[in-house]
Design brief:
Layout (H helix, E strand, L loop, with lengths): L1 H19 L7 E5 L9 H16 L3 H7 L7 E4 L9 E3 L2 H13 L3 E13 L2 E12 L8 E10 L3 E9 L10
Parallel strand pairs: 1-4, 2-7
Antiparallel strand pairs: 2-3, 4-5, 5-6, 6-7
């Protein structure tokens, strides 16, 4: 049963990847993506990262489920970008979907700028830093710079995504 479910999830992510493959991600890919385990690829991980942010911004619950490693267990967290912003930590799908819906109501937009990959460790493709720009109606009138780290789990989706404001002194993405 577990293998069949893995195969279904892999097909769903492959479908997302094929849709994303029609365009190059609008962000820079850097670092080490070599050493993928059998049946996995960095291209699928890259597509899953891209798809996760699209799903989150649209608060699309069925899409979020497809690109998040729900069966493995996941963690999503974000720091406070403004004094009125909230620190959020989500370990369950209802927590993540509730936060996504809240952010969609504020017309949140996250533009990924660059992702540095740190290689495969088992079935996980680790990445970080991930640099992005964040805007929303309730975050002020200028884009806020963010940084994070995460992991794509082969055949299951994003298993870790931690984000925070980019600290002073962090030069951000390479040009």
């Amino acid at each position: 049963m577990s293998r069949a479910l893995n195969a279904v999830v892999m097909l769903q992510i492959a479908a997302v990847a094929s849709l994303s493959a029609q365009r190059v991600p609008p962000w820079q890919v850097r670092g080490d993506t070599s050493g993928a385990p059998s049946g996995c690829s960095a291209a699928t991980g890259i597509a899953a990262i891209d798809a996760w942010f699209v799903a989150f911004q649209n608060a699309d619950s069925s899409f979020i489920v497809r690109v998040t490693a729900v069966r493995r267990g996941f963690v999503f967290s974000t720091g406070k970008f403004t004094p009125s912003d909230a620190f959020v930590s989500a370990h369950t799908l209802p927590e993540l979907l509730s936060y996504a819906r809240t952010r969609a109501r504020a017309r949140e937009h996250i533009a990924v700028q660059e992702v540095t990959f740190n290689g495969w460790r088992g079935d996980g493709l680790e990445f970080g830093p991930i640099y992005f720009r964040r805007t929303a109606d309730d975050l002020g009138n200028r884009a806020l710079l963010g940084v994070g780290k995460g992991e794509y789990w082969c055949g299951q989706g994003i298993s870790v995504l931690n984000t925070a404001p980019r600290p002073t002194g962090d030069p951000g993405p390479r040009r």
